[in-house]
Write a structure and sequence with these properties.
The complex is a heterodimer of chains A (528) and B (109). By secondary structure, chain A is of the alpha+beta class. Chain A is 41% helix and 18% strand. In chain A, strands 1-2-5-4-3 form a 5-stranded mixed β-sheet. In chain A, helix 9 runs antiparallel to helix 16, helix 9 packs antiparallel against helix 18 and helix 16 runs parallel beside helix 18. The longest helix of chain A has 29 residues. Chain B has one domain: Alpha-Beta Plaits. With 109 residues, chain B is α+β, with helices and mostly antiparallel strands. Chain B starts with a helix and ends with a strand. The chains are: A alpha+beta (528), B alpha+beta (109).
Chain lengths: 528, 109
């Protein structure tokens, strides 16, 4: 970000908007604007809509111990630039109400519901302020992320029925599914309304695995946060720990050695590969193409096996640490990895041709679960799910981190938005990941693996975006005394779950698992 | 169809192992159950302090590791100044009783 761009943003605002801005500052590629509470929706809406920015996160900070108010942050990423704008507004502690941003930025909907749940700040004008993440029997007026809520506090449980949307009419049936499912998966409640076979409404209810990750993180030293981050959403653990480490490293201006940046890229792509292989296998399985599915699972197992061989962990845990990485890739490891990649590439080619050459599978994939570009853009769908609907955004390219700046790769973008498009995007990304890893191995610089990281000074703020296999995720930390003062985590699934409610409409119930699998959503990452 | 059989049967062969009839040997870097070398441990509590899940308790003459809490991160093994703690390759840790998850060692103090 440069002064010129900041000036252009300011100049693009009409006088009555610009009046709402109290203070601006520039830090690296990040513009900070302190705005009037009541001007927040219009200013955020202006930058979002006129500048084509995407909403990265919206969250609150309980700042009552310092400035005796709550802070509200809206983080926006500018289109086509590696630049961010953060708007900060102050919300009165005695009168915790702010004007809703949702009418101006559609994707702010769930964020404001979450803020209402966790901080008790009410978005006035929000279309739907029902609880989002809190349990159904959580007492009203108890807000877990406020500082005066003790970490181990026990709350009385009350009965509070959740008001589901009512879909009524002749011949309309409601099918409730979950939270306990037939398979060994995470809990979530789906309420389908059907008229005959087609689904006419789907309502999601999540939050059953809310673990208080953010609260927990505020209670532990930075070094333990890495292990916590690895466990936010198990199969995306490397992406989460990478984002966490990068955030803390940014807080204390640590210079991470070049070699560890490359190694981080290699492991991030290995994680993407085993996730995508599992997803495409799941898509094959849900179309009853079991043989093909087993081929994909076999390849997935080969990738997890090489993870185990290189790091001692099938899920790449324990690799990231503050200041770099713990595991080196020696010559032997590199050659074994290259060998395995060749094997998996050939195997995946076979699988891919098998799937697209089987008409009964393609018949199920094509035109199923269509998510239009407009819906994907407005809901801010990230990752392969968004790219299959024409949203051309990939953090690795748009906001490069680790060593991605030095690696060349293609970002596959398709327009159809159906299950097949998501299958194709993930398949292409597997091939791209192999290419990225091969480049990183051949360009791997010599040098240290990690640098010393000292304790960040209190009161600083940093953020990191990482492209996890599921899409863009974010960690955002305000440093405190030896531990984070506020740690906001936003997983890709927090955006992407909402795509389900749109994509299944008009489809038959038996296609729901297929659509669900193609978005590959994390319950744990959403519920935090 | 024929292609599918060819890709599966002929090209890939058998990919499963005969576990548990044939024991599985983990890779060298595998982080399994943390094990104490009782002769080297001097109860300086370095492991207890660093353990992120409070799975390790050091009391007079005893060190206990609760494998039900342990997340196998290996911080204790790295923190031990006397190399008394190692991450072994042991991974078959299931128990029918909760108490069976706790390993108790007799150590110097």
């Amino acid at each position: 970000m440069n002064e010129r761009l900041m000036g252009e943003i300011m100049a693009s605002m009409a006088d009555d908007l610009a009046k709402g801005i109290k203070k601006t500052g520039l830090r690296g590629n990040h513009v900070w604007m302190t705005v009037e509470r009541d001007a927040l929706p219009k200013i955020a809406g202006h930058i979002h809509n006129s500048w084509g920015a995407t909403l990265v996160s919206m969250h609150a900070v309980d700042n009552r111990s310092i400035t005796s108010d709550f802070k509200l942050c809206v983080v926006l990423a500018l289109k086509g630039e590696d630049d961010f704008v953060t708007l900060v507004a102050s919300v009165d502690a005695e009168n915790p109400i702010f004007p809703s941003v949702t009418p101006d930025i559609f994707s702010a909907n769930w964020y404001e519901r979450e803020i209402n749940d966790m901080f008790g700040l009410q978005a006035k004008g929000h279309p739907d302020l029902r609880p989002l993440v809190l349990y159904d029997d959580w007492p009203e007026g108890t807000f877990p992320l406020r500082k005066d809520f003790a970490l181990n506090a026990e709350v009385p449980r009350i009965s509070r029925p959740y008001a589901y949307r009512k879909v009524e009419g002749e011949g309309v049936f409601v099918i409730p599914v979950g939270p306990v499912h037939a398979g060994v998966i995470e809990p979530g409640h789906f309420r389908f309304s059907v008229a005959g076979e087609p689904i006419i409404n789907l309502e999601l209810r999540l939050g059953y695995v809310h673990k208080g990750i953010e609260k927990l993180s505020e209670s532990m030293p930075y070094s333990n946060g890495v292990q916590l981050a690895e466990r936010i959403s198990g199969d995306n653990g490397f992406a989460h720990s990478l984002a966490y480490c990068q955030t803390v490293e940014a807080l204390c201006d640590a210079k991470v050695p070049e070699r560890s940046r490359y190694i981080r890229c290699i492991f991030a792509e290995l994680e993407r590969m085993h996730n995508h292989l599992g997803d495409v296998g799941g898509i094959a399985l849900d179309t009853a193409f079991s043989v093909g599915a087993q081929h994909a699972y076999m390849l997935r197992e080969r990738m997890m096996d090489i993870n185990d061989l290189l790091t001692g962990s099938r899920f790449l845990r324990g690799v990231n640490c503050l200041g770099g990485v713990r595991k080196d890739l020696d010559k032997d490891g590199r050659s074994k990895l290259t060998e395995r990649l060749v094997m998996v590439k050939l195997g995946f080619q076979d699988f891919y041709e098998e799937v697209i050459g089987t008409p009964s599978v393609m018949d199920r994939l094509e035109t199923t679960g269509v998510l239009s570009f407009e819906a994907a853009r407005d809901l801010n769908i990230v990752g392969p799910g968004g790219r299959a609907s024409g949203v051309d955004r990939d953090v690795r390219r748009d906001h490069p981190y680790a060593a991605y700046r030095n690696l060349s790769f293609k970002v596959p973008v398709l327009k159809q938005g159906d299950v097949n498009a998501r299958f194709q995007v993930k398949s292409e990304e597997i091939f791209e990941s192999i290419g990225i890893i091969e480049q990183a191995i051949s360009n791997l610089p010599e040098g240290e693996l990690r640098t010393e990281v000292h304790l960040p000074d209190p009161g600083r703020t940093a953020m990191s975006l990482v492209e996890s296999p599921r899409g863009e995720l974010m960690h955002w930390i305000v440093s405190g005394d030896g531990r984070p003062f506020r740690h906001k985590v936003r997983d890709a699934s927090f955006h992407n779950w909402r795509a389900m409610e749109v994509a299944v409409l008009g489809n038959i119930v038996p296609d729901f698992p297929l659509v669900n699998k193609s978005f590959s959503l994390s319950y744990s990452g959403n519920d935090l | 169809m024929l292609e599918t059989i060819w890709n599966g049967f002929m090209k890939k062969g058998v990919v499963t192992d005969r576990y548990p009839d044939v024991p599985y040997v983990p890779y060298d870097g595998h982080q399994g159950m943390p094990v104490i070398n009782e002769a080297k441990c001097i109860s300086d509590k370095a492991c207890e302090k660093i353990c992120p899940t409070a799975a390790i308790q050091v009391t007079t003459g005893h060190l206990s590791i609760d494998l039900g809490l342990c997340i196998f991160c290996g911080e204790c093994a790295r923190a031990c100044p006397h190399q008394a703690m190692i991450m072994s390759k042991e991974f078959e840790l299931a128990s029918k009783r909760r108490e069976g998850m706790v390993r108790v060692y007799v150590v110097q103090h």
